[in-house]
Design brief:
The protein is an alpha/beta fold and 340 residues long. Helices cover 31% and strands 17% of the residues. Helix 5 packs across helix 7. The radius of gyration is 19 Å and the shape is globular. It starts with a strand and ends in a 6-residue tail after the last helix.
């Protein structure tokens, strides 16, 4: 395995290249980014005080046409003692190689290899048997769908699942059963057929409009383009299959927290309304679908939030972090974590 090296985010962030099995486009890798908590103060060590999440590992998976760049999100966890890891999946962000089709996959279960490699690099096994540390899975959008399916297939592997606007249902839920057979045929006969571009770049503009100079983020436009990457038939069928699995009901045995905007807005033309709503998903449908993930699901609706709740305007973003902190504290206390 390669060595940890300095990451493009700088500061306390490092990255590790994970070698995966080749596919029809050649060599394939994933990239694991980490940020580790600082040492406890001498006074806390003297008093035997532990941070509430000293025994926790967090694994973050990004969404479609995306990669990991959110420093503050990582520091939320490391400030509480957790080790934070983020996975740039194959053909995304740091893992995209020349000649590859960005984001292309035909089965979301193929990411099991990426996740297994990440867990091994974190010093864990897939089932968690080699680690005494709790595992928190944290996913955004398509990453939330991918981790939900993974957690359902791997019972007892995760201690908690936190989803930031997970893409659990197609934007027109009633049309999915009608679209799915056509998508399956396209995926079978022309998996790399490209759908028309429908993203007008308004979601990216909304993030820029609400950007906070006191909490800046820097985005690589090659890895996270203003308009989403091309949608291929094989990938689209993989996502619809994931939606169908969620609709049929998953069996995630860990408690789940779902963070969502309070409402959606249709991005057919630009308006200020798009800076205070989810313009990607139909959040009411996502909230309903979330209840099919498992027996313990909390849904947090945040007024004024964008699709990525942690990139919203100041008030909504701070509320998202408050809700996350409240849920994590409750979960950790219930699981026997130290809350001192």
């Amino acid at each position: 395995m390669a060595d940890w090296i300095a990451d493009v985010l700088g500061d306390e962030f490092e990255q590790l290249t994970l070698t995966l099995a080749d596919d029809d486009e050649g060599a394939v890798v994933a990239t694991l980014v980490r940020a580790l908590p600082g040492e406890r103060s001498w006074w806390d060590r003297l008093r035997g005080r532990r941070r509430p999440l000293d025994d926790v590992d967090v694994l973050y998976v990004h969404g479609w046409s995306d990669y990991f760049f959110q420093k503050r999100l990582a520091r939320f966890w490391t400030a509480r003692g957790a080790r934070f890891f983020a996975l740039d999946l194959r053909k995304y962000g740091r893992s995209l190689r020349e000649g590859q089709t960005p984001g292309y996959i035909t089965d979301l279960a193929a990411y099991d290899e990426d996740i297994a490699a990440a867990l091994e690099a974190m010093g864990r096994s897939v089932d968690g048997s080699t680690s005494g540390r709790r595992l928190v899975l944290l996913g955004h959008s398509t990453g939330g769908l991918t981790l939900s399916l993974w957690a359902s297939r791997h019972p007892h592997a995760a201690s908690a699942l936190i989803l930031n606007s997970p893409w659990l249902e197609f934007q027109v839920a009633s049309a999915r059963p009608l679209i799915a057979p056509v998508a399956e045929l396209q995926a079978r006969w022309a998996p790399r057929e490209v759908a028309p571009q429908v993203d007008l770049g308004f979601y990216t503009r909304a993030q820029q409009e609400v950007a906070d100079p006191d909490d800046p983020v820097e985005v690589n436009p090659v890895w996270r383009p203003a308009q989403t990457m091309a949608v291929h038939a094989g990938w689209f069928h993989a996502v619809l299959s994931g939606h169908a699995a969620v609709a049929a009901g998953l069996t995630i045995d860990a408690p789940v927290c779902v963070l969502l905007s309070a409402r959606s807005a249709t991005p057919t033309r630009w308006s200020e309304d798009l800076t205070r709503a989810d313009s990607v998903l139909v959040v009411d449908d996502i909230a309903r679908a979330a209840l099919k993930l498992g027996p313990s699901v909390t849904v947090e609706r945040i007024d004024g939030a964008l699709h990525d709740v942690f990139l919203s305007r100041h008030e909504a973003r701070e509320e998202a972090y408050r809700r996350l902190d409240r849920w994590v504290r409750g979960w950790s206390a219930a699981a026997g974590g130290d809350q001192t």
